[in-house]
Amino acid sequence: MDRWCGRVALVTGASSGIGAGIAASLVKNGMIVLGVARDVERIKKLSDSLGTTASGGKLVGMKCDVTNEDDIKSVFSYAKDQFGGIDVCVNNAGLSHSSSLLTGDTKEWRNMLDVMILAPCIITREFM
Ligand SMILES: NC(=O)c1ccc[n+]([C@@H]2O[C@H](COP(=O)([O-])OP(=O)(O)OC[C@H]3O[C@@H](n4cnc5c(N)ncnc54)[C@H](OP(=O)(O)O)[C@@H]3O)[C@@H](O)[C@H]2O)c1
């Protein structure tokens, strides 16, 4: 991980679960992590608990609903202004509605596709 020390990572869905775990691990390895999710307060709490490491690692939280393209573009614009860009992109945000093919709700299917298919495509394009 030494080569990534001081570099910048974007982690989507950093407010809980696997994304919070990845964000914390990258910070401990000296990365500057821009963690995004809708519940930015949870990311800020995690950031406070991690602080800034001896190698300069830290977690910066930003509110972003990945189903909103303007929110995504704001994240990349902020990262460019603050850090000069992003070196590592972790498309982690996800959710699952209990919504089966036979009885499911179209809105819930659309939400899952937006968060887990379309958003990672937009984020990857903007990252590259
Ligand atoms: N846990 C498992 O066993 C497992 C297995 C296979 C795949 N996965 C995948 O791994 C990823 C993380 O899973 P997890 O278990 O850590 O889930 P989790 O604890 O429910 O966390 C999901 C994260 O995604 C974020 N998110 C959801 N909708 C969002 C939106 N519209 N905009 C921005 N962020 C959004 C949530 O943040 P906010 O609610 O604050 O926005 C949260 O931070 C998901 O993609 C999941 O599908 C998990």
From TrEMBL:
Keywords linked to the UniProt accession: Oxidoreductase
Pfam family, one: adh_short
Signal peptide: none
Domain of life: Eukaryota
Keyword Oxidoreductase recorded: yes
UniProt keyword Membrane, yes or no: no
InterPro entries: NAD(P)-bd_dom_sf, SDR_fam
Single GO molecular function: oxidoreductase activity
Protein family per UniProt: Belongs to the short-chain dehydrogenases/reductases (SDR) family.
Name of the protein in question: Dehydrogenase/reductase SDR family member 11
